[in-house]
Automatic annotation (TrEMBL):
It comes from the Bacteria. The chain crosses the membrane at residues 9-32, 141-164. GO terms for molecular function: kinase activity. This is Histidine kinase. The keyword Nucleotidyltransferase does not apply. Keywords: Kinase, Membrane, Transferase, Transmembrane, Transmembrane helix. It comes from Leptotrichia hofstadii. The keyword Membrane applies.
């Protein structure tokens, strides 16, 4: 019976854990995608105002003007301008974030952050913007999802064990009592403890043994 019990526990655990893993992984990616999309839309609201201000500034005053200009999430945004064939860095992070000309909008994933690159058109200028999304909130979300996954796995194992025991203990009793009857104790009757398929099996066996006694 132990082998059957183990098979039930393993089968239930593997199937339900796999399903739970897929659901939790999908939820995690969905929530992270939603967060990045929300931040990207916020960036699309911020940058046009910056472009409007910088379009009127001469090349030699661009960096100074930008550094004095304050706006939300400025510390997470890297900015450069392509104007009159010159690529002008307005932030001091071209080395750390490798800000350089890119040809299309793209979202990259680093080990500790998302990097969203987008090109905005200004008056006779192109604005190359990089928005860095820190992974801190994503890490917290992943930890919560991982904790949920572990708790679900433990719960599934416990529930599977209880269900397996509920099904197999009566079968173990049937086997034990049948062994007693096989030792010529034919007056013994199997004990019926439940009204389900196992109970029906006990009725059939008892009826069979009764017929055997009459022979």
């Amino acid at each position: 019976m132990k082998k059957i019990k183990d098979k039930i526990i393993i089968a239930n655990t593997v199937s339900l854990v796999f399903i739970s893993f897929i659901i939790i992984l999908s939820m995690t990616f969905f929530l992270i995608h939603t967060a990045v999309e929300t931040e990207s839309k916020e960036m699309d609201k911020l940058i046009p105002a910056i472009i409007e201000k910088l379009d009127k500034v001469p090349d030699n005053k661009l960096k100074e003007t930008y550094q004095k200009y304050d706006y939300a999430d400025k510390e997470y945004i890297s900015l450069a301008i392509l104007r009159n064939g010159k690529f002008i860095y307005l932030t001091d992070d071209e080395n750390s974030f490798k800000l350089k000309k890119f040809e299309s909008n793209k979202l990259k994933t680093k080990w500790d952050r998302f990097i969203y690159k987008k090109i905005y058109a200004g008056y006779k200028s192109k604005y190359y913007v990089i928005r860095n999304f820190e992974f801190m909130e994503a890490h917290e979300l992943l930890y919560v999802m991982l904790a949920m996954f572990v708790l679900i796995t433990i719960s599934i194992i416990i529930i599977s064990k209880i269900v397996a025991e509920h099904v197999l203990i009566p079968l173990s009793n049937i086997i034990s009592q049948s062994n007693e009857m096989s030792k010529h104790n034919i007056d013994l009757q199997l004990t019926k403890t439940r009204d389900d398929e196992i109970g029906e099996l006990i009725d059939v066996l008892n009826e069979t043994f009764n017929k055997k006694k009459k022979l």
